[in-house]
Amino acid sequence: MAMMILALLLSLTMAAGCGGAPVTQTPDEALQLGLGRNYEIVHREPVAGGMILLYRPEPNALDAALIIKTREGWKWVFGGGTARPKGVEPIISWSYVLLRDPAKETQPLSVYFGEVFSSEVAYVEVEEQDRPKRSMAISQGRKFWIIVFDRSIDYPTRVRAGTVDGNYIFNVISTGKFRLFE
């Protein structure tokens, strides 16, 4: 009998949307609670049903996290895809992560993101199937970029950084989630 009551309580809790990650009042709180510690949040990007937060898991690194809005509040779903600067004088950092809510049958979000280090960079673009998307965001006096596709990308993409004159000063082809060719 006690097991039946416990099972009933558990199923009611899950049906109410209280299962999994805790629900909070703000997206920032959801990230901190979902990851178990405080991180510096450097950019907030609204998406359908929630928000993508760019945060620093360590100095000079960026991760992305999907936070969804529920009836009760904000809930951390998933994060990852660390972007780190490479080289002595990096132009940009970049990474890719596929974010989706595993509890729902929603479209995944393919997220490319990073930080701009060169003052020459006017924009960053990600091109897939000959359709470029451009981005540049300024948060807290620093330049971050994020490009979101509303589907999974399973084929080569090109990540480029351009100047105000339209010249590319960074160009890389990604042939998968984490394999690169320069």
Would you mind describing this structure in some detail?
13% of the residues lie in helices and 46% in strands. With 182 residues, it is mainly beta. The strands form three sheets. It has a five-stranded antiparallel β-sheet with strand order 1-5-4-3-2. The protein has a five-stranded antiparallel β-sheet with strand order 9-8-12-13-14, with no helix packed on it. The radius of gyration is 19 Å and the shape is globular. Residues 1-18 and 177-182 have low confidence and may be disordered.
Question: How are the secondary structure elements laid out?
Answer:
Elements: H1 2-15, E1 23-24, H2 27-35, E2 40-47, E3 50-56, E4 62-69, E5 74-83, E6 95-99, E7 109-115, E8 123-128, E9 131-135, E10 137-139, E11 142-149, E12 157-162, E13 168-174, E14 180-181
Antiparallel strand pairs: 1-5, 2-3, 3-4, 4-5, 6-7, 7-11, 8-9, 8-12, 10-11, 12-13, 13-14
Ends distance: 63 Å
Order of SSEs: HEHEEEEEEEEEEEEE
Q: Outline, from the CA principal axes?
A: globular
- What percent strand? over 45%
Class derived from helix and strand content: mainly beta
Rg value: 19 Å
Low-pLDDT parts are 1-18, 177-182
Quaternary organization = single chain
Total DSSP helices: 2
Main sheet: strands, sense, barrel = 5 strands, antiparallel
Question: What would the keywords be for this entry?
Answer:
182 residues, mainly beta, 13% helix, five-stranded antiparallel sheet, disordered C terminus, 14 strands, 2 helices, single chain
Write a concise synopsis of the structure shown.
With 182 residues, this protein is mostly beta strands. The chain has helices spanning 2-15, 27-35; strands at 23-24, 40-47, 50-56, 62-69, 74-83, 95-99, 109-115, 123-128, 131-135, 137-139, 142-149, 157-162, 168-174, 180-181.
